Amino acid sequence: MMEEKTFNIIQAFVEHAELAPIRTAIVVPVGRDAQGRSKTVQLSFKQLNRLCDQYAHGFLNYGFGKKDRVLLMVRPGIDLIAIVLALIKMGAVPVIIDPGMGVKALAQCVSEAGPTGFIGIPPAHILRLLCPKAFRNIKRHVTAGRRWFWGGADLKSIRSNSQTPFPVADTTAADEAVIAFTSGGTGIPKGVVYSHGMAGAILESLRSDLKMTPGEVHLAAFYAFALFMPSLGVTTVVPDMDPRRTARVNPAYLVEAIHAHGVTNSMGSPIIWEKVADYCRAGHIRLPSVKHVFMFGAEVSPDILKDFVSILDRGRAYTPYGATEALPLTNIGHEEIINETAALTARGAGVCVGRPIARAVVRIIPITDAPVPDWDDALSLPDGRMGEIVARGPAVSRAYLNRPQKTAESKIYSPAGVWHRMGDLGYFDDKGRLWFCGRMVHRVETPGGLLTPVQCETIFNHHPDVKRTALVGIGPYGAQRPVILAEPRPHKKPLSAGFKKDLVAQLLELGQKHAHTRQIKDILIYDRPFPVDVRHNSKIQRHKLAQWARMKLK
Mean pLDDT across the stretch 153-172? Predict the structure, then answer.
């Protein structure tokens, strides 16, 4: 049998450190001066690679080894990026979990990952002690910060002073590189195993399809992508923001970082760019250095795109489509959306997310909640037919971590590769473009037919007093009662009963103007912010709204 070729995604980072040693690799905020200006620390590629090597030597000496899964609960910053790079370089597997998911969900995710190593801040170690069953496999633990009574090592002392380069581990494309968890928008987050081959395919897509090339300066508005940029030769600027609360971002801080460091590209939730656009338009500020920005995490309104590109000189905005399990899959630029697809979106066609990128194969299959174990070309629906979006390619994960039932529900196997069921509804138009219409679990099946969130909500979102709406269904599929919940735009005073009554009447009138929303007879005013996901602060948690609506309509 032929020996499998070695491949480690960190090799590209090491090569960039050799080719451009003094290029800035990372810039991190460390507070503000007396005038309120951002203070930063930055490392060149050579310095970051050296720090990575020192951590790798230290971790090896401490007992972390090749293929060990190491759970990370460290605050965003230089150390976190260096630790991730060091672990991958030595062949270990960083396990990355979003701490904002809640203790119960987090404990389940840790238990499923089964890490044997742990690096965390002091509160994370307290959680480890409070949930011993979840952390039962931990053999070695490191404290990032002050170590208290729980023993183990601390990150500061574990770092080696060695100046000897650490050799890149001889992993293969099939070996685990990173384990990341989904956002959990429709349930307990699931562990996605990124092999070195899958991570390498994502890097190639970022480079060739999204134009993330050496010398670019990236603002890490979505922090996870900061971990990819060193291997692309891209400078990473970490913004002064809490990645767990993107909806509360201070746009002035992001604009300051863009101007100070000549940021050329960024990725992040649409709510971030909406705030940046509003701030810049109000202050007559422009962003001349920005060449391309990618908005994702939730459907992007054409209005947000129009407002954002108006503050750029020659820059472009894109709305790629994908998921933790498969990214990116499609892409589309703002020109095509504003000039063509926005008008269709306004009439309830859904949101166009563009054409599949190179190496991604995307199809539409019939709607079913049952597993589909084996692929058959007959499953593929023709253009114009609504169904579930599925995809395969080198950047698509093969299985969930220790979730056999979820794997069976989400994967379709074929000789050409594993298809991932995105859990999203959509269709292709006659130009080869994919249209997104909402999540499968959020569909509403009434006696009058199928209703999808994006297609219906767009109609009601036109009302000037409405910030956003959410479609929910009450009852079993096939006999559901469709309900629209409306979140009004912020008002200085509490909303009166008369205002709410008039708003409901006006929204019902809007719905009657379109065939697909005509059957919606129930509209409820939800006079506080909708509950949203932790990661992007943009995905509406419709299951919570459905529970509330059910109580109101009893």
Answer: 95
